[in-house]
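Narrative of activities, Objective 1.

The group set out to show that a structural description can be obtained from nothing but a protein's sequence at a throughput compatible with the screening campaign. Below is one input-output pair from the validation batch, recorded exactly as produced.
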Amino acid sequence: MTALAKKLPADWWKNALVWAGVIAVPIVAFGLFLQTQGVNAIQTYGTMISSTLGTSYGIGEVVVKSTPLVLIAVATAVSAKAGLVNVGGEGQFAIGALAAAAAGMLLLQDVPGIIGIPCMALAGIAGGMLWSGVAGVLKVKANMNETITTLILNYIAVQVVSYFVYGPLKDPDSFNWPQTARISSQLRLPSLGGGRVSIGIFFAVGLAVILWLVLKKTKWGYKLRVIGGNPIAAAQAGYHVAKNQLIAMLVSGGLAGFAGMLEICGVEYQMRQTTGTNYGYLGFLAAWMAWNNPLLGIVTAFIIGFLSVAGNTMEITSGLPSSSIRILMSIVLLAILWKGRRKKA
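Output recorded for this entry:
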Protein backbone atom coordinates (compact mmCIF):
# COMPACT_ATOMS: atom_id res chain seq x y z
CA MET A 1 0.00 0.00 0.00
CA THR A 2 2.88 2.36 0.86
CA ALA A 3 4.62 1.66 -2.47
CA LEU A 4 1.37 2.36 -4.33
CA ALA A 5 0.88 5.62 -2.46
CA LYS A 6 4.36 6.77 -3.46
CA LYS A 7 3.53 6.24 -7.15
CA LEU A 8 0.36 8.33 -6.96
CA PRO A 9 0.59 12.10 -7.52
CA ALA A 10 0.45 14.22 -4.38
CA ASP A 11 -2.96 15.65 -5.28
CA TRP A 12 -4.49 12.38 -6.44
CA TRP A 13 -7.34 12.73 -3.98
CA LYS A 14 -8.23 16.12 -5.46
CA ASN A 15 -8.41 14.60 -8.94
CA ALA A 16 -10.55 11.78 -7.58
CA LEU A 17 -12.96 14.28 -6.05
CA VAL A 18 -13.14 16.27 -9.29
CA TRP A 19 -13.92 13.13 -11.32
CA ALA A 20 -16.52 12.11 -8.75
CA GLY A 21 -18.14 15.51 -9.27
CA VAL A 22 -17.95 15.17 -13.06
CA ILE A 23 -19.86 11.89 -12.78
CA ALA A 24 -22.26 12.88 -10.02
CA VAL A 25 -23.31 16.37 -11.15
CA PRO A 26 -24.92 15.27 -14.47
CA ILE A 27 -26.72 12.39 -12.74
CA VAL A 28 -28.09 14.65 -10.00
CA ALA A 29 -28.99 17.47 -12.43
CA PHE A 30 -30.88 15.12 -14.75
CA GLY A 31 -32.52 13.51 -11.74
CA LEU A 32 -33.82 16.92 -10.67
CA PHE A 33 -35.17 17.43 -14.18
CA LEU A 34 -36.99 14.10 -13.95
CA GLN A 35 -38.48 15.10 -10.61
CA THR A 36 -39.81 18.33 -12.10
CA GLN A 37 -41.62 16.19 -14.65
CA GLY A 38 -43.28 14.10 -11.95
CA VAL A 39 -40.99 11.11 -12.52
CA ASN A 40 -39.27 9.18 -9.73
CA ALA A 41 -35.60 9.67 -10.64
CA ILE A 42 -34.17 6.84 -8.53
CA GLN A 43 -36.69 4.33 -9.81
CA THR A 44 -36.14 5.47 -13.40
CA TYR A 45 -32.36 5.17 -13.10
CA GLY A 46 -32.70 1.69 -11.61
CA THR A 47 -35.00 0.54 -14.39
CA MET A 48 -32.74 2.00 -17.08
CA ILE A 49 -29.71 0.13 -15.72
CA SER A 50 -31.45 -3.19 -15.04
CA SER A 51 -33.24 -3.33 -18.39
CA THR A 52 -30.14 -2.29 -20.37
CA LEU A 53 -27.20 -3.93 -18.63
CA GLY A 54 -29.15 -6.57 -16.74
CA THR A 55 -30.13 -8.60 -19.80
CA SER A 56 -28.18 -10.11 -22.67
CA TYR A 57 -30.53 -8.42 -25.13
CA GLY A 58 -29.94 -5.01 -23.55
CA ILE A 59 -26.18 -5.45 -23.58
CA GLY A 60 -26.35 -6.55 -27.21
CA GLU A 61 -28.31 -3.46 -28.17
CA VAL A 62 -25.73 -1.26 -26.45
CA VAL A 63 -22.98 -2.94 -28.51
CA VAL A 64 -24.99 -2.54 -31.72
CA LYS A 65 -25.54 1.16 -31.00
CA SER A 66 -21.94 1.75 -29.93
CA THR A 67 -20.17 0.09 -32.88
CA PRO A 68 -20.64 2.93 -35.40
CA LEU A 69 -20.16 5.54 -32.67
CA VAL A 70 -16.67 4.19 -31.94
CA LEU A 71 -15.62 4.60 -35.58
CA ILE A 72 -17.18 8.03 -36.00
CA ALA A 73 -15.56 9.19 -32.76
CA VAL A 74 -12.18 8.02 -34.07
CA ALA A 75 -12.90 9.68 -37.42
CA THR A 76 -13.62 12.96 -35.66
CA ALA A 77 -10.44 12.62 -33.60
CA VAL A 78 -8.22 12.11 -36.66
CA SER A 79 -9.35 15.34 -38.31
CA ALA A 80 -9.25 17.17 -34.97
CA LYS A 81 -5.58 16.28 -34.54
CA ALA A 82 -4.95 18.18 -37.79
CA GLY A 83 -6.78 21.22 -36.42
CA LEU A 84 -10.03 20.53 -38.29
CA VAL A 85 -13.56 20.40 -36.87
CA ASN A 86 -15.29 17.71 -38.91
CA VAL A 87 -18.97 17.54 -37.98
CA GLY A 88 -19.76 15.66 -41.18
CA GLY A 89 -19.76 12.14 -39.77
CA GLU A 90 -23.51 11.97 -40.33
CA GLY A 91 -23.23 12.53 -44.07
CA GLN A 92 -20.05 10.50 -44.52
CA PHE A 93 -21.65 7.57 -42.70
CA ALA A 94 -24.80 7.83 -44.84
CA ILE A 95 -22.96 7.99 -48.16
CA GLY A 96 -20.68 5.14 -47.11
CA ALA A 97 -23.68 3.02 -46.16
CA LEU A 98 -25.43 3.90 -49.43
CA ALA A 99 -22.35 3.01 -51.50
CA ALA A 100 -21.93 -0.30 -49.68
CA ALA A 101 -25.62 -1.19 -50.04
CA ALA A 102 -25.59 -0.30 -53.75
CA ALA A 103 -22.48 -2.40 -54.35
CA GLY A 104 -23.94 -5.35 -52.48
CA MET A 105 -27.31 -5.13 -54.22
CA LEU A 106 -26.20 -4.38 -57.79
CA LEU A 107 -22.75 -5.92 -58.19
CA LEU A 108 -22.05 -8.52 -55.53
CA GLN A 109 -25.26 -10.50 -55.09
CA ASP A 110 -23.70 -13.76 -56.26
CA VAL A 111 -20.15 -13.13 -55.11
CA PRO A 112 -18.80 -15.22 -52.20
CA GLY A 113 -18.70 -13.38 -48.92
CA ILE A 114 -14.93 -13.65 -48.55
CA ILE A 115 -14.66 -11.42 -51.63
CA GLY A 116 -17.94 -9.52 -51.49
CA ILE A 117 -17.66 -8.22 -47.92
CA PRO A 118 -14.21 -6.62 -48.48
CA CYS A 119 -15.54 -5.12 -51.72
CA MET A 120 -18.47 -3.63 -49.85
CA ALA A 121 -16.03 -2.30 -47.24
CA LEU A 122 -14.03 -0.61 -50.00
CA ALA A 123 -17.23 0.86 -51.42
CA GLY A 124 -18.23 2.22 -48.01
CA ILE A 125 -14.78 3.69 -47.40
CA ALA A 126 -14.75 5.26 -50.86
CA GLY A 127 -18.19 6.79 -50.30
CA GLY A 128 -17.13 8.33 -47.00
CA MET A 129 -13.86 9.61 -48.44
CA LEU A 130 -15.69 11.15 -51.39
CA TRP A 131 -17.97 13.08 -49.05
CA SER A 132 -15.25 14.24 -46.67
CA GLY A 133 -12.94 14.95 -49.61
CA VAL A 134 -15.33 17.61 -50.88
CA ALA A 135 -15.03 19.49 -47.59
CA GLY A 136 -11.28 18.85 -47.51
CA VAL A 137 -10.70 20.30 -50.96
CA LEU A 138 -12.87 23.31 -50.17
CA LYS A 139 -10.78 23.83 -47.04
CA VAL A 140 -7.31 23.61 -48.57
CA LYS A 141 -8.09 25.18 -51.96
CA ALA A 142 -10.71 27.81 -51.13
CA ASN A 143 -10.03 28.26 -47.39
CA MET A 144 -13.68 27.55 -46.60
CA ASN A 145 -14.57 26.73 -43.02
CA GLU A 146 -14.75 22.93 -42.75
CA THR A 147 -17.23 23.06 -39.87
CA ILE A 148 -19.78 24.81 -42.08
CA THR A 149 -19.10 22.77 -45.22
CA THR A 150 -19.30 19.40 -43.46
CA LEU A 151 -22.50 20.45 -41.73
CA ILE A 152 -24.07 21.50 -45.05
CA LEU A 153 -22.90 18.27 -46.66
CA ASN A 154 -24.79 16.34 -43.97
CA TYR A 155 -28.07 17.81 -45.20
CA ILE A 156 -27.13 17.17 -48.83
CA ALA A 157 -26.31 13.54 -47.96
CA VAL A 158 -29.80 13.08 -46.52
CA GLN A 159 -31.30 14.24 -49.80
CA VAL A 160 -28.96 12.03 -51.84
CA VAL A 161 -29.98 8.99 -49.80
CA SER A 162 -33.66 9.92 -50.16
CA TYR A 163 -33.29 10.22 -53.93
CA PHE A 164 -31.83 6.74 -54.28
CA VAL A 165 -34.07 4.87 -51.83
CA TYR A 166 -37.16 6.50 -53.34
CA GLY A 167 -35.84 6.16 -56.89
CA PRO A 168 -33.14 4.09 -58.65
CA LEU A 169 -32.33 1.73 -55.75
CA LYS A 170 -35.82 1.33 -54.34
CA ASP A 171 -36.85 -2.26 -53.72
CA PRO A 172 -39.85 -2.99 -55.97
CA ASP A 173 -41.12 -5.49 -53.38
CA SER A 174 -40.97 -3.05 -50.45
CA PHE A 175 -44.69 -2.09 -50.57
CA ASN A 176 -43.63 1.50 -51.35
CA TRP A 177 -41.31 1.80 -48.35
CA PRO A 178 -38.19 3.91 -49.12
CA GLN A 179 -35.50 1.25 -48.88
CA THR A 180 -33.22 -0.86 -51.03
CA ALA A 181 -33.45 -4.60 -51.45
CA ARG A 182 -31.68 -6.69 -48.81
CA ILE A 183 -28.14 -7.84 -49.51
CA SER A 184 -27.48 -11.55 -50.03
CA SER A 185 -26.95 -13.71 -46.95
CA GLN A 186 -23.29 -14.42 -47.75
CA LEU A 187 -22.55 -10.69 -47.61
CA ARG A 188 -23.70 -10.37 -44.02
CA LEU A 189 -21.19 -10.27 -41.18
CA PRO A 190 -21.30 -13.25 -38.79
CA SER A 191 -23.27 -12.55 -35.64
CA LEU A 192 -22.18 -13.26 -32.08
CA GLY A 193 -24.46 -15.60 -30.22
CA GLY A 194 -27.16 -15.49 -32.88
CA GLY A 195 -28.32 -11.97 -31.94
CA ARG A 196 -27.98 -8.59 -33.62
CA VAL A 197 -24.38 -8.11 -32.51
CA SER A 198 -21.93 -8.81 -35.34
CA ILE A 199 -18.16 -9.12 -35.48
CA GLY A 200 -18.17 -5.49 -36.63
CA ILE A 201 -17.53 -4.44 -33.02
CA PHE A 202 -14.08 -6.05 -33.22
CA PHE A 203 -13.28 -4.09 -36.38
CA ALA A 204 -14.40 -0.85 -34.70
CA VAL A 205 -12.39 -1.34 -31.51
CA GLY A 206 -9.39 -2.68 -33.44
CA LEU A 207 -9.30 0.35 -35.73
CA ALA A 208 -9.62 2.68 -32.75
CA VAL A 209 -6.53 1.08 -31.17
CA ILE A 210 -4.62 1.19 -34.46
CA LEU A 211 -5.44 4.86 -35.04
CA TRP A 212 -4.42 5.69 -31.48
CA LEU A 213 -1.04 4.08 -32.13
CA VAL A 214 -0.71 5.85 -35.48
CA LEU A 215 -1.52 9.26 -34.01
CA LYS A 216 0.70 8.76 -30.98
CA LYS A 217 3.67 6.79 -32.28
CA THR A 218 4.18 7.53 -35.98
CA LYS A 219 5.79 10.40 -37.82
CA TRP A 220 2.52 11.24 -39.57
CA GLY A 221 0.71 11.36 -36.25
CA TYR A 222 3.36 13.75 -34.93
CA LYS A 223 2.91 15.94 -38.01
CA LEU A 224 -0.83 16.10 -37.43
CA ARG A 225 -0.36 17.09 -33.80
CA VAL A 226 2.07 19.84 -34.77
CA ILE A 227 -0.25 21.10 -37.52
CA GLY A 228 -3.24 21.01 -35.20
CA GLY A 229 -1.33 22.83 -32.49
CA ASN A 230 0.01 25.64 -34.68
CA PRO A 231 -0.38 25.42 -38.47
CA ILE A 232 1.72 28.55 -39.05
CA ALA A 233 4.65 27.16 -37.09
CA ALA A 234 4.17 23.80 -38.83
CA ALA A 235 4.38 25.47 -42.24
CA GLN A 236 7.53 27.32 -41.22
CA ALA A 237 9.01 24.00 -40.08
CA GLY A 238 8.49 22.63 -43.59
CA TYR A 239 5.34 20.58 -43.07
CA HIS A 240 2.80 20.51 -45.90
CA VAL A 241 -0.17 21.74 -43.88
CA ALA A 242 -2.80 21.65 -46.64
CA LYS A 243 -1.73 18.20 -47.87
CA ASN A 244 -1.80 16.64 -44.40
CA GLN A 245 -5.11 18.26 -43.54
CA LEU A 246 -6.64 16.89 -46.74
CA ILE A 247 -5.29 13.42 -45.95
CA ALA A 248 -6.70 13.67 -42.43
CA MET A 249 -10.12 14.57 -43.82
CA LEU A 250 -10.01 11.65 -46.25
CA VAL A 251 -9.04 9.20 -43.50
CA SER A 252 -11.78 10.64 -41.30
CA GLY A 253 -14.40 10.21 -44.01
CA GLY A 254 -13.16 6.71 -44.82
CA LEU A 255 -13.62 5.62 -41.21
CA ALA A 256 -17.16 7.05 -41.09
CA GLY A 257 -17.96 5.38 -44.42
CA PHE A 258 -16.64 2.07 -43.11
CA ALA A 259 -18.97 2.47 -40.12
CA GLY A 260 -21.82 2.82 -42.62
CA MET A 261 -20.76 -0.40 -44.33
CA LEU A 262 -20.70 -2.25 -40.98
CA GLU A 263 -24.25 -1.06 -40.33
CA ILE A 264 -25.40 -2.46 -43.67
CA CYS A 265 -23.54 -5.77 -43.45
CA GLY A 266 -23.93 -6.32 -39.73
CA VAL A 267 -27.28 -4.88 -38.66
CA GLU A 268 -29.78 -3.66 -41.25
CA TYR A 269 -28.78 -5.56 -44.44
CA GLN A 270 -30.37 -2.82 -46.57
CA MET A 271 -30.33 0.96 -46.89
CA ARG A 272 -33.25 2.87 -45.48
CA GLN A 273 -33.92 6.57 -45.41
CA THR A 274 -33.35 6.51 -41.65
CA THR A 275 -30.25 4.29 -41.58
CA GLY A 276 -27.77 5.69 -39.08
CA THR A 277 -29.80 8.80 -38.26
CA ASN A 278 -27.97 10.90 -35.62
CA TYR A 279 -25.00 8.50 -35.47
CA GLY A 280 -22.72 11.20 -36.86
CA TYR A 281 -23.69 13.76 -34.25
CA LEU A 282 -23.52 11.23 -31.40
CA GLY A 283 -20.11 10.07 -32.62
CA PHE A 284 -18.93 13.68 -32.69
CA LEU A 285 -20.20 14.03 -29.12
CA ALA A 286 -18.29 10.88 -28.11
CA ALA A 287 -15.08 12.28 -29.60
CA TRP A 288 -15.39 15.59 -27.76
CA MET A 289 -16.21 13.83 -24.51
CA ALA A 290 -12.95 11.88 -24.98
CA TRP A 291 -10.96 15.02 -25.86
CA ASN A 292 -10.35 13.45 -29.29
CA ASN A 293 -8.46 10.49 -27.82
CA PRO A 294 -9.31 7.36 -29.88
CA LEU A 295 -8.89 5.02 -26.89
CA LEU A 296 -11.09 7.12 -24.62
CA GLY A 297 -13.46 7.39 -27.58
CA ILE A 298 -14.20 3.69 -27.21
CA VAL A 299 -15.36 4.31 -23.64
CA THR A 300 -17.40 7.42 -24.39
CA ALA A 301 -18.99 5.76 -27.42
CA PHE A 302 -20.20 2.93 -25.19
CA ILE A 303 -21.47 5.43 -22.61
CA ILE A 304 -23.51 7.19 -25.29
CA GLY A 305 -24.62 3.84 -26.69
CA PHE A 306 -25.85 2.86 -23.24
CA LEU A 307 -27.64 6.16 -22.75
CA SER A 308 -29.28 5.90 -26.19
CA VAL A 309 -30.63 2.43 -25.49
CA ALA A 310 -31.61 3.41 -21.93
CA GLY A 311 -33.53 6.35 -23.36
CA ASN A 312 -35.95 3.94 -24.99
CA THR A 313 -36.53 2.29 -21.62
CA MET A 314 -37.07 5.67 -20.00
CA GLU A 315 -39.72 6.49 -22.60
CA ILE A 316 -41.64 3.34 -21.69
CA THR A 317 -41.33 3.65 -17.91
CA SER A 318 -41.61 7.41 -17.41
CA GLY A 319 -43.71 8.59 -20.33
CA LEU A 320 -41.05 11.12 -21.33
CA PRO A 321 -39.81 11.06 -24.93
CA SER A 322 -36.60 9.08 -25.47
CA SER A 323 -34.99 12.26 -26.79
CA SER A 324 -35.02 13.55 -23.20
CA ILE A 325 -31.89 11.48 -22.63
CA ARG A 326 -30.06 14.02 -24.81
CA ILE A 327 -30.34 16.44 -21.89
CA LEU A 328 -28.27 14.04 -19.78
CA MET A 329 -25.77 13.61 -22.64
CA SER A 330 -25.40 17.37 -22.92
CA ILE A 331 -24.80 17.80 -19.19
CA VAL A 332 -22.23 14.99 -19.21
CA LEU A 333 -20.44 16.65 -22.16
CA LEU A 334 -20.35 20.03 -20.42
CA ALA A 335 -18.99 18.45 -17.24
CA ILE A 336 -16.24 16.58 -19.08
CA LEU A 337 -15.31 19.61 -21.16
CA TRP A 338 -15.10 21.65 -17.96
CA LYS A 339 -12.75 19.02 -16.53
CA GLY A 340 -10.65 19.24 -19.69
CA ARG A 341 -10.45 23.03 -19.54
CA ARG A 342 -9.52 22.84 -15.86
CA LYS A 343 -6.76 20.35 -16.65
CA LYS A 344 -5.41 22.55 -19.45
CA ALA A 345 -5.46 25.60 -17.18
